[in-house]
Design a protein that fits this description.
5-stranded mixed sheet, elongated, 15 helices, alpha+beta, BirA Bifunctional Protein, domain 2
């Protein structure tokens, strides 16, 4: 019995006391994406395994070691999505969205699944905010996607984050780079881990992404792609850098960034935090111009990024970032007697229809216990309604923070009174947040 009342290793529950933080991040992310012209897309949690083998890459850690793959009852090999891009690209192709006006801009918040060692900021079930832009090969699109991620981190109050960018070229110039890498690693084959030895022939760039400390030491002196870029790729990268500079978005060129998935080409980037130690990357992405063609569709230039919500939340909390206050009960009605319960139920329904968070007792407590409950849930106001209040049509509205009371009428004016108090409080909270942003 103990096993079924404990979450599976590598997963976690988001409890009510924390869910408002997630909602704040998710709302901010989708709101900013919308300002950039992105619309939401939702794809299935599982896909055909071949989709990820062909897009993510058979030589990657994700495909070789981390995917949750199983045969369904029809004998088909199915995989829980390990990332969001492949499913979005499949949907773009399946529904012919590339025939619409380009670029196609989509955004999503999704769960992903990878079987790896659970640790801080790295779970087997995790969540991502991602954006994908299909239909532009220009450096403007790269800069815009980076600017979106930069603005999101800024709006959320993330500090101590630096932008690292690199170019890993196109298939044409990467062929020469692969030769140089292979030549370099051949002389160190005996020191490479077994997985990297298998990668040496098929895709030596994947060795640069190995998490083994021994392989990490070997790669420090490996050739860098920047020295092998063709003229077109170099021009594209210079264009991206120029646009970032024009927008005053600070960056540093990091020639060691290759990203962990095979579909990347040209621009790759990461936002790196100083708050997470070894798990420093909070957002990463880049261009994947050949992905749709690899999946059997027409060649559609594309790019995007993924941002891990669990890791982002860790950064925000480590930096002491401010979150909006969690939602609180505006007014709690304590009822005494059957007729009072009916009247209070009617009142809270009207208030809720008007957008006021109102509650009343639903478990049959006595008055003292109701007031104790109202205090525990942080109700801003309380109103006691009993036989006397029903007869006079009047009750006392108590401010639970100041203790002040005022007489109110149990008629239509009650709704206007409480609506106005709720609006005034919301405006005050907005002003406080605005002032905090200004001071920050």
């Amino acid at each position: 019995m103990a096993l079924i009342t404990k979450a599976i290793r590598g997963t976690q529950d988001v409890l009510p006391n924390d869910s408002y933080k997630w909602q704040h991040i998710e709302h901010t992310a989708m709101s900013i994406a919308r300002d950039f012209g992105y619309r939401e897309i939702r794809t299935p949690v599982f896909e055909h395994t071949e989709l990820f083998q062909r897009s993510v890459g058979e030589t990657t850690d994700v495909v070789q070691k981390e995917m949750y793959t199983f045969d369904d009852k029809g004998g088909r090999s199915i995989t829980l999505r390990p990332e969001g891009t492949a499913g979005a690209a499949r949907a773009i192709l399946e529904h012919g969205l590339y025939n619409d006006a380009l670029p196609i801009k989509v955004a999503y918040i999704t769960s992903c699944y990878r079987y790896e060692k659970p640790q801080a900021g790295r779970l087997r079930e995790f969540h991502q905010f991602g954006v994908e832009c299909f239909g532009s090969a220009e450096p403007q699109a790269d800069a815009e996607v980076i600017a979106l991620a930069n603005l999101l981190l800024k709006e959320l109050g993330v500090t101590g984050v630096s932008l690292h960018i690199n170019s890993i070229g196109c298939p044409a110039c990467r062929a020469e780079y692969h030769k140089a890498l292979k030549s370099y690693f051949e002389t160190r084959r005996d020191d490479l881990c077994p997985t990297c030895n298998s990668r040496l022939e098929r895709n030596p760039m994947r060795i640069l992404d190995c998490k083994s400390p021994e392989c990490g030491e070997i790669t420090k002196n490996a050739p860098v792609m920047m020295d092998y870029l063709c003229d077109d790729c170099r021009k594209h990268f210079d264009g991206v850098k120029g646009l970032l500079e024009a927008a005053e978005i600070q960056y540093e060129v990091d020639t060691r960034i290759v990203r962990g998935l095979d579909y990347y080409t040209r621009t790759v980037f990461e936002f790196v935090s100083d708050a997470l130690g070894a798990q420093a990357v909070v957002c990463g992405g880049g261009r994947y111009d050949g992905l749709t063609e690899e999946l059997g569709g027409p060649r559609i230039p594309a790019l995007g990024f993924g941002l891990g919500l669990e890791r982002l939340l860790m950064v925000l909390e480590a930096k002491g970032a401010k979150f909006p206050d969690p939602p609180r009960c505006e007014v709690f009605f304590a009822a005494m007697g059957e007729e009072a319960v009916k009247r209070c139920f009617s009142i809270v329904n009207h208030l809720r229809e008007g957008g006021v968070q109102a509650e009343f007792d639903t478990v049959g407590r006595g008055l003292k216990a109701q007031m104790k409950y109202a205090n525990k849930i942080g109700a801003r106001y309380t109103v006691v309604v009993g036989e006397n209040e029903l007869q006079t049509g009047k009750a006392r509205l108590k401010n639970m923070e100041t203790g002040q009371e005022e007489e109110i009428l149990l008629d239509e004016s009650l709704y206007v009174n409480l609506y106005n108090k709720s609006i005034d409080r919301q405006l005050a909270d907005m002003a406080e947040l605005l002032q905090s942003d200004i001071e920050g």
